[in-house]
Amino acid sequence: MRSIFPATTGPRARRAAVGLLPVVATVATLAPFASLGVVVLGAAVALMGGRSPHTDARRLLLVPAGSLTVAVFAVLFGASHLAGDCFFVLAVALATAARALGRAAATVGRALVLPLIGMLIAPVAPGAHPLRTLLWATLAVLVADAYVLTVGLMVRRDRPVRQEPAAGVPARVHLARGVQAGVALAAAFLVGQSVFGDHWAWTVISAYTVGAAARSRGDAILKGIHRTVGAVGGTVAATLLAGAVGANRTLTVGLLLAVLAAGAVLRDYGYAWWAASVTAALALLYQLLGVADPHALLAGRLAAVVAGALCAVLPAALLVPVRTGAVVRKRAAEALRAIKGNDPGLAAERVGALREAAKPLQAVRRWHVRPELAWVDALTAVLPDLRRAEVTDAARHAAAEVGRSLRATGGDRAGQERPRPA
Hints:
Elements: H1 11-30, H2 36-49, H3 63-79, H4 81-97, H5 103-121, H6 130-156, H7 171-195, H8 200-211, H9 217-245, H10 249-266, H11 271-288, H12 294-318, H13 324-340, H14 344-357, H15 359-363, H16 372-381, H17 383-387, H18 393-408, H19 411-414
């Protein structure tokens, strides 16, 4: 089967389409017969799963386990908020720490957590009907995962599937991130339910989105800032859009998908764009669910988002933090090994990972220049050659220069990506 996207499709448009096609397909499949909450759960799982690089069809076997996790949370939360909160926090913390056991454990953890986060966004009849919750959640997650895997497999047909795993992250780092995730979410539940009443979920979602994928202390801080800035813009935009569309449900759904599409395309220009699009989409969604309140959107949502971001940033910065410089050095070493091994495709991926890891340093380079930024600049300059599947002499020369600088600054020791005391 050939790729569903032509080779001339730009990388940003391609990634946006890969992320959004499963969402649109899931909504189109579930909307004719399922409730709005079920549709939203499926769309949320498809949206989050669409950015995963894994396209193993065996992931479908984990759908019942993910749905059971949703049902347990719904029943526990319906009986006792404290019991539901504790279950949620432990599930996410253990799923994060489980990455220390390898890729298979990470896949299982992700399959359990994504429906749980989706449930937080759009509850699926929790409380008195656990079996109904389980069945509807299973259907929504199954449909979403099936479309995510189908689109992912079709897109990857024209690219070799690499069996080599990403360079290993020490187990202690995953364990530290699990602890950070647990502390952040526990604080978010406590603050959200104590201060923001019915809108407590905004705080928890914010804490999760800021802290879940943070690579380092600097990355968590940068994402927290972008999340806050994006929330301000997204909330204002959504409030204006909601006032314009009124009670027109079809137009609201169309705007919601358009906002997500714009965010997917603009995400590479800055995480704030993605944060703004998701915030706006959630605001439109709450209008569909009949819980929209313009004053709450402008005041309560922003305060809850900021509180959630702080709940994620503080543990990442103070509790066994991973230094940004250490992550950048490690990613640089991985890129050099791929270039030395004459593997341009892998080298391009590694340079891309290096650039992502260095974003916190790039954000402050006007005020504080770090030697790691010279390595990023040198390897970024040869990235077009690597993307053309060619390791040129220029790439080898750049790799040699970066390698000498890396060794001179103790890169082999500093690049171990180990958590350090604050």
